[in-house]
């Protein structure tokens, strides 16, 4: 606004009445072509105790049999079990778009009496991927970095309780700043509609009371069409999703559906009256996959990177102090002065970088909860 008058924005070149286009309107197509050529990476971590239906749900989500080679678990081993990381990658292609999907499973999670080790294993895996990315980014081959960072963590909660258990609270509190947490209620077919509603409400209350930051949907763009807005509102209202998984295809009234057969009827995985499976799939794959990746890059990874650089800068300062002390003790000023200058230069660079990153994080937080900006240092 200038003098209270709204300024219009014009095309880049305007001559008389006729508009001349420079050609940058094709930029979205160029970006699209490049992204399609490169393909996409997405890493999903699944966490929850053995038997909660994690593998079944992943197979149902991606219409695959990702765990066909897995040995059946022996429930008597539960107590002594240690948490392992099992990583499986598959390439999926849809309409010429390639997705390299990695599923990180954590068999044994929460099965031992002391869960501390389970949390540590998951946390270490996430940190290790950030660390690897940080090193690749600072290395020579920056153009071909493979992104193995965890973009989303599906956390399975049993349907039998009244809300979150201590185990769930501790896990989420420990990891909420490092990964996009999406809690799901497992095996929702054991709950009536009323029980499901109450469990969801209790879980959301527990999440708020314990200041847990789960993945938050971005604000819907006011420019979006009504159908999108309706879908978005429905997704938000159904959180946390109560899901059912099945690898069995059944015939119901002439239709072939994935479902679970009970003496009284069939529970259909993709029936929205029966569970939120379709909502979870829509969010994870069709509507919010990119936002989950953006959040990983701009919030969680930036936090990690800031901490790393701050640690490196502190180490540089310590080594400067040591160098200065040694040079005073031994009286070797010439060489020591040169080294001190180098250290000062290094520290200054780190501090500049830190300052820029803090600034970037601050801007990011203040823009809005819509997290739709990309600012690169
Ligand atoms: P995981 O150990 O968490 O990977 O669990 P699995 O996917 O191996 O499932 C354990 C058992 O639970 C299997 O017998 C599944 O058929 C069953 N199961 C999986 N999903 C569901 C579900 O949504 N509802 C019910 N009732 N059972 C399920």
TrEMBL record:
<comment type="similarity">
    <text>Belongs to the TRAFAC class TrmE-Era-EngA-EngB-Septin-like GTPase superfamily. Septin GTPase family.</text>
</comment>
<keyword id="KW-0963">Cytoplasm</keyword>
<dbReference type="GO" id="GO:0051301">
    <property type="term" value="P:cell division"/>
</dbReference>
<keyword id="KW-0342">GTP-binding</keyword>
<keyword id="KW-0547">Nucleotide-binding</keyword>
<feature type="domain" description="Septin-type G">
    <location>
        <begin position="38"/>
        <end position="311"/>
    </location>
</feature>
<keyword id="KW-0175">Coiled coil</keyword>
<keyword id="KW-0131">Cell cycle</keyword>
<dbReference type="InterPro" id="IPR030379">
    <property type="entry name" value="G_SEPTIN_dom"/>
</dbReference>
<dbReference type="Pfam" id="PF00735">
    <property type="entry name" value="Septin"/>
</dbReference>
<dbReference type="GO" id="GO:0005737">
    <property type="term" value="C:cytoplasm"/>
</dbReference>
<dbReference type="GO" id="GO:0005525">
    <property type="term" value="F:GTP binding"/>
</dbReference>
<dbReference type="InterPro" id="IPR016491">
    <property type="entry name" value="Septin"/>
</dbReference>
<protein>
    <recommendedName>
        <fullName>Septin</fullName>
    </recommendedName>
</protein>
<dbReference type="InterPro" id="IPR027417">
    <property type="entry name" value="P-loop_NTPase"/>
</dbReference>
<keyword id="KW-0132">Cell division</keyword>
<feature type="coiled-coil region">
    <location>
        <begin position="336"/>
        <end position="367"/>
    </location>
</feature>
């Amino acid at each position: 606004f200038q003098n209270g008058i709204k300024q219009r924005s014009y095309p880049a070149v305007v001559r008389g009445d006729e508009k001349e286009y420079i050609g940058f309107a094709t930029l979205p197509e160029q970006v699209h072509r490049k992204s399609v050529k490169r393909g996409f990476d997405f890493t999903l971590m699944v966490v929850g105790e053995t038997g909660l239906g994690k593998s079944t749900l992943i197979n149902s989500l991606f219409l695959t049999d990702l765990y066909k080679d897995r040995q059946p678990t022996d429930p008597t081993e539960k107590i002594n079990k240690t948490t392992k990381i099992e990583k499986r990658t598959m390439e999926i292609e849809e309409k010429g778009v390639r997705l390299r999907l990695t599923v990180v499973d954590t068999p044994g999670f929460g099965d031992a009496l002391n869960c501390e080790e389970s949390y540590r294993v998951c946390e270490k895996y996430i940190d290790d991927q950030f660390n690897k990315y940080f090193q690749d980014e600072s290395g020579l081959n920056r153009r071909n970095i493979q992104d193995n960072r965890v973009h989303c963590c599906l956390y399975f909660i049993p349907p039998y309780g009244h809300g979150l258990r201590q185990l769930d609270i501790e896990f989420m509190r420990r990891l909420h700043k490092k990964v996009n947490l999406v809690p799901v209620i497992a095996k929702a077919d054991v709950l009536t509609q009323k029980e499901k509603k109450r469990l969801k409400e209790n879980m959301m209350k527990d999440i708020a009371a314990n200041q847990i930051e789960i993945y938050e949907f971005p604000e819907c763009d006011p420019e979006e069409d009504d159908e999108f807005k309706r879908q978005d509102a429905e997704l938000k209202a159904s959180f946390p999703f109560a899901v059912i998984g099945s690898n069995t295809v059944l015939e119901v009234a002439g239709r072939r559906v994935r479902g679970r057969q009970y003496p009284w009827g069939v529970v259909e995985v993709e029936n929205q009256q029966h569970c939120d499976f379709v909502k979870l799939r829509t969010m994870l794959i069709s509507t919010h996959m990119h936002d989950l990746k953006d959040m990983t890059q701009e919030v969680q990874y930036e936090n990690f990177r800031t901490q790393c650089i701050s640690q490196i800068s502190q180490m540089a300062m310590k080594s400067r102090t040591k160098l200065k002390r040694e040079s005073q003790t031994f009286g070797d000023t010439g060489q020591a002065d040169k080294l001190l200058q180098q250290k000062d230069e290094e520290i200054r660079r780190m501090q500049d970088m830190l300052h820029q990153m803090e600034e970037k994080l601050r801007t990011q937080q203040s823009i809005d909860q819509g997290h739709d900006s990309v600012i690169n240092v």
